[in-house]
């Protein structure tokens, strides 16, 4: 057997085990009885140890040295294994264990602090998490920017500096757009109650309308919707709220976007380093373009309005135009996950700047709340009223996920680029969307992006699909046009 | 760290990984999308390799040599690890792989042959399976009886000879009992249709009535009911049939018996070699005593009759006595899994004698069908009409599970012993059972058997609970009394 074949055989089992770990996570959020929690922690830990040992197995180094790549697939596989091996090998095992233990503890402390609105109870724990992740980042970075080392876990090849410039440009046009919108009359809200079974039935119909394939997946309920798994077993979850069926429908479409990426990857990459989405940013571009540019378009919401009338009868919204405005309603709010298309990125930009400063050491954890609240007031024009609406709202930092937030807006930026190209390629798309037929959109994304999985780097994945380097311009143009029309700015 | 502590820490992770493998099996039978099958096979394979490597890790040999046992728990742990390590180490890795591959293939060939009633299509595959398992048995047996080596996987310490004597004694009294019953008028059957939601609701009520704890488990539907998992996560499944709600109810009670054993084991044994049921026979004793001696008793069926009337209204059975006769109806049939308490063991005895002869070499696979059909006619008095009612009815042999069948009847024998002791300890049990209260029965079983898990050998587990060596007498006495009364023999 050649070194390359041996490497791929070993890697295949590692990927299969990683799929199992992912499915355990799915089980925990959807099926697991509550009392099993402590046992599950041990099961997770045992599997994590096996995976860590495999990812740092010194034979990988030998195989990598001897492996010869005959084609672009082999080049990409070797690139990905090299990256994973180098990253895993640079982190001392005891530091990895310490981080796992501390973040597991910090997660519980955060959840309690959030309920009690008690920032002081969380900060000492957060300080430890920041210190450990910085230590890890410095070990991986080898002299380069430690934030970039963390970013590479979610968006390989990206740098804090480039993202910073892109996000600054976003902010420059998003803040005035937001301010202009909020001076206009606010569209009406939904006011009636929507039954759960109707929401779930229409949610499933939406998933299928966006091409979700239940032969290779399933839909369940979970507290926080997510998509999990790769290849032939990609499962999604959704949730319901009697007063807000959009939460259910757009969560579903969002997760179907993630799942479509995984389900759309060329089967030849199954259980290889190329067999799952290439980065969080590219992943989010798929969930966002499904959810927003397609799902919240005037044409598609016209169809959805009819579906909702069929499912729920008259629900107090008079016509398609009023429904479109209702779906795309922009209003004041504190919570990132509930934000509309315009304000969502402002939430992310705030977190990106703050976490970058935390990791560089320019901002101390003790000054974090003031920094958050000041920046929020500057961008949104009003003050945080309580910590659960401010720095305690997100789980990410308690889990040590520094470098994750920017991928949300990067995904929106990528979605903007892809949407521009898609519209050029399929000029009459709205005719189909108005009939609830997304196949030309999802087909274009599959053909130009999803099928390639991890074959190219994240930026190259986007530029291969669009024919241009990623830029924030298309997203900004799209948002300004859509909301200027809608709010008659 | 002492050698014993190091051994136990290593073993704990292995048990945690084995729990994960079990949960994957549960997922496959209840939740997994059909299209995921090939990927799941690779995931299972990867985890099986990890488990095999851990179970044959040479460090276990070193630890075992150096380990000192300070108490009976440590003695039992070392005994169990030594047994597992010796067994795993004696089988060459390539033979283990060959068996896994062949049985996986044979399982598919069997399923197809069964549908097509095509014995000839299955026999060459079965021949391979028998040859491989014989080779394995000879490797483990080291000169002793190879069938006992296989038996030890399911019932450590048992021998084909002892079981053979016990089963011969069973057959001597069961055949005449069966013949006498079948000369009497057959009780009436259920004839109406029972809706699925009502069956599932009452099935859950029954599970809870038998003490199943949903904080540490859950109930789902599956084609073939099973219980899976140990410790804090023990899940059961059931099934429904519109014409036969007893299938649902007694499958549930049966699986609750298995689950109660796992849920009842002392928590100090969690994820250790003592943390799950000690053998298949002892496991089956719990499922059978829940299902039969308790669940099919006159007193408990009296309560169940009322529950069914509440759930389904008048379903055509006039009173408690007629219902008791209906539940315990004995009639001609070909299928083991559908057999009543009396005939079930005759099905098992037939398989035991035949598989023992296959493994010893006294019976050739080419003569298998004739041997089966002759024995069936001798014990049951009529002939097999088609292979799916004969040698193709069970999955076990295609999966290489030789030595498994006898544990079913061993479980019934053990249940007979336990039931005799239980009735002595709780003389007024029927008063409670008539109210649907099983707590004194399940409490006695938990206190005298379930809590000990793998602490004692299987036989010692039973004799510790009953104060006597296991014997077939109590089961035979119980069956003769119950069915003589019921059929007025």
UniProtKB/TrEMBL annotation, chains A, B:
Keywords: Carboxypeptidase, Hydrolase, Metal-binding, Metalloprotease, Protease, Zinc. One of its GO terms (biological process) is proteolysis. Its cofactor is Zn(2+). It holds the Pfam family Peptidase_M32. The keyword Zinc applies. Gene3D superfamilies: 1.10.1370.30. It catalyses: Release of a C-terminal amino acid with broad specificity, except for -Pro. Binds 1 zinc ion per subunit. The active site is at 255 (proton donor/acceptor). The keyword Signal does not apply. Belongs to the peptidase M32 family. PANTHER family: CARBOXYPEPTIDASE 1, METAL-DEPENDENT CARBOXYPEPTIDASE. Broad specificity carboxypetidase that releases amino acids sequentially from the C-terminus, including neutral, aromatic, polar and basic residues. This is Metal-dependent carboxypeptidase. The lineage of its organism: Bacteria, Pseudomonadati, Pseudomonadota, Alphaproteobacteria, Rhodobacterales.
